[in-house]
Amino acid sequence: MFSLDQIPDLPLDLWVGGKPVPAADGGRFDVLDPATGGSIAAVANGTVEDAIAAIDAADAAAEAWAATAPRERAEVLRRAFELMQARSAELAALISLENGKALSDAKGEVAYAAEFFRWYAEEAVRAEGSVMTAPSGANRILVVRQPVGIAVLVTPWNFPAAMATRKIGPALAAGCTVVLKPASDTPLTALLMAKILEDAGVPAGVVNVVPSRSSGTVVSVMLHDPRVRKLSFTGSTEVGRLLLREAADQVVNCSMELGGNAPFLVLEDADLDAAVEGAMVAKMRNAGEACTAANRFYVHESVAEEFSRRLAERMAALRVGPGIAEDTQVGPLVNVEAVDKVAELVATAVADGARVVTGGTRPEREGFYFDPTVLLDVPTGSGILAEEIFGPVAPIVTFTDEAEAVRMANATEFGLVSYVYTRDLARGLRVSEALDSGMVGLNRGIVSDPAAPFGGTKQSGIGREGGHEGMLDYTESKYIATSW
Ligand code: NAP
Fewest Cβ atoms closer than 10 Å to its Cβ: which of 153, 161, 300, 483? Predict the structure, then answer.
């Protein structure tokens, strides 16, 4: 069985100025194993003083890092990619241990997370600007890209490695220094990432990690420090709104990756085998704890019974257990509050008239589990369709025509991702354009790719991570009006 002793270089203190440092007041907090509820480590609990020290370190390193040759920054990121690959087994076990996700999901996350370092190693050397003749002919318009400055990165617990690398990769490529505040449920992966980046050659102070149970005050003090020029946040829309207000005081540049409520449309001409396969991925990756998780299934009435029967068969066959066990397919949810929320949403949907096709209950075992669940005939007003479930539950609503399906899919304040299944590609593209979300999976249950712009419309966020745009978000354009 895996234990933390197998990672002797895992820092349990804050990571500031290139080394582990205890919290200013010596405080620590427990990290729990969601499979048992027991403590696996006590991590330094960053204070306001520590946050300022981390900004001091990022500030001291900023000028030299921004002046580093892009090729050099690229090579550091490339080494970080290689080190992550070399340490993928340890990283996956660590993610599984602190987050609860099945080891297979954790391995997938490590591969995905490492790709952000590879992609931004390749992008670091492509910081192009532009030059054009002014319309008047009097001068040239020269545009260069410069690093935006010190970036505060705040990440959630559901992808402890990938959400960190999706921010650190482009920030470092652009020449920014960073302070990362990881989620308190999963600080260990972020701390190991700091060590890996150091081993890859990242200079002291370029990457700092400050876990803290006082996230509100610690992030607030950083956003009010005039040296901080960028906030990149991934988490709930509720906390995102709060941080946008905080960031307004110093007019900090914000990138926000917020909550989702993804609709999954199965049109009457869909390939049902592909749709069920895609539904399993879109719903069950990370046991449903993904912002991209299919949250509402809209299935044409002519195929709804068949689709739900097949989906329920697949869901019921999943092996539920501790994430760290090799044969587990669905691990526990991250904490007891997460299970309570899922149980309540399911109970309310059933009271509203939904039929349980499979699951619907918590298994009787220690840890934070919920059974894979399929609900059919969910009434359109039910709360489960309006909120992020963040668990292994698939509510199905039937529809009769395409326009109605698109209208229901768009009837939400969220707009992160949508999925649509149809055999008719022209129809699929038409529906994709009509869906109000930043991303669409067309006959695909997964959209995440470091080479693609990830992000949402409406209250799912501002800005894009990944792709070429991801690095631009850590730069400012500087326009130089030039006469020559
Ligand atoms: P969360 O509660 O919003 O927390 C996210 C991060 O913000 C954590 O590091 C958290 O620290 C910190 N935080 C909480 N309250 C804060 C405050 N008042 N001031 C400053 N920081 C604060 O979200 P979560 O539960 O960790 O993650 C799940 C959410 O993330 C879901 O809504 C999901 O859709 C979203 N998500 C979005 C994307 C995307 O790319 N759009 C990707 C993944 C997840 P503590 O842990 O210490 O509270």
Answer: 483
Asked whether residue 444 is domain-assigned, the answer is yes
Which ligand 1 atom is at minimum distance from the Cα of 258?
A: 41
* Number of domains making up the chain: 2
Question: Could you read off the pLDDT of 281-333 as tens digits, one per residue?
Answer: 999 999 999 999 999 999 999 999 999 999 999 999 999 999 988 899 999 99
* Three-class SS state of 16: strand
Per DSSP, helices labelled H in 265-332 are: 272-284, 304-316
Q: Which atom of ligand 1 is nearest to the CA of 257?
A: 41
Q: pLDDT by residue (tens digit) across 7-59?
A: 999 999 999 999 999 999 999 999 999 889 899 999 999 999 999 999 999 99
Do residues 127 and 40 share a domain?
yes
454 within domain boundaries: no
Residues 251 and 400 in one domain: no
Tokens, residue 328: 């587990």
Both 303 and 231 in one domain: the answer is no
291 lies in which domain range? 262-448
Q: What atom in ligand 1 is closest to the CA of residue 155?
A: 9
Q: Give domain status of residue 76, yes or no.
A: yes
Whether 447 is in the pocket of ligand 1, judged by its Cβ within 6 Å, is no
Q: What is the CATH number of the domain that holds 337?
A: 3.40.309.10
Does 167 contact ligand 1 (Cβ within 6 A)? Answer: no
Q: Which of 215, 238, 336, 412 to mutate to test the pocket of ligand 1 (most atoms within 8 A of CB)?
A: 215
Distance CA 185, CA 334 (A): 8
Task: Looking at the structure, tell me whether residues 248 and 272 fall in a common domain.
Answer: no
Tens of pLDDT, residue by residue over 208-228, are 999 999 999 999 999 999 999
The HSE-up count of residue 450 (CA atoms within 13 Å, CB side) is: 26
Task: Report H helices in 100-210.
Answer: 103-123, 162-174, 187-199
Question: Ligand 1: which residue has its CA nearest to atom 18?
Answer: 216
| pLDDT of res. 383 | 96
Is the pLDDT assigned to residue 484 strictly greater than 90? no
Q: Is 258 in the pocket of ligand 1 (CB under 6 A)?
A: yes
Which of 191, 236, 417, 437 for a ligand 1 pocket mutation test, highest count of atoms within 8 Å of Cβ? 236
For the cut 80, the answer to whether the pLDDT of residue 1 exceeds it is: no
Q: Is 457 in the pocket of ligand 1 (CB under 6 A)?
A: no
Judge if 294 and 245 occupy the same domain.
Answer: no
CA of 239 to the centre of ligand 1 (A): 7
What phi and psi, each to the nearest 5 degrees, are found at residue 146? -125, 150
> Which token pair is 167?
């921010």
Q: Is residue 162 domain-resident?
A: yes
Q: Residues 98, 109, 257, 402: which is the catalytic one?
A: 257
* Torsion angle in degrees (nearest 10) through CA of 115, 117, 121, 127: 100
Mutate to test the pocket of ligand 1, among 30, 158, 249 (most ligand atoms within 8 A of CB): 158
| Mean pLDDT along residues 378-392 | 96
Residues 322, 336, single domain; the answer is yes
411 and 475 co-located in one domain:
no
* Residues 422, 323 share a domain: yes
Residue 475: burial class (beta carbons within 10 Å; 0-12, 13-18, 19+): buried
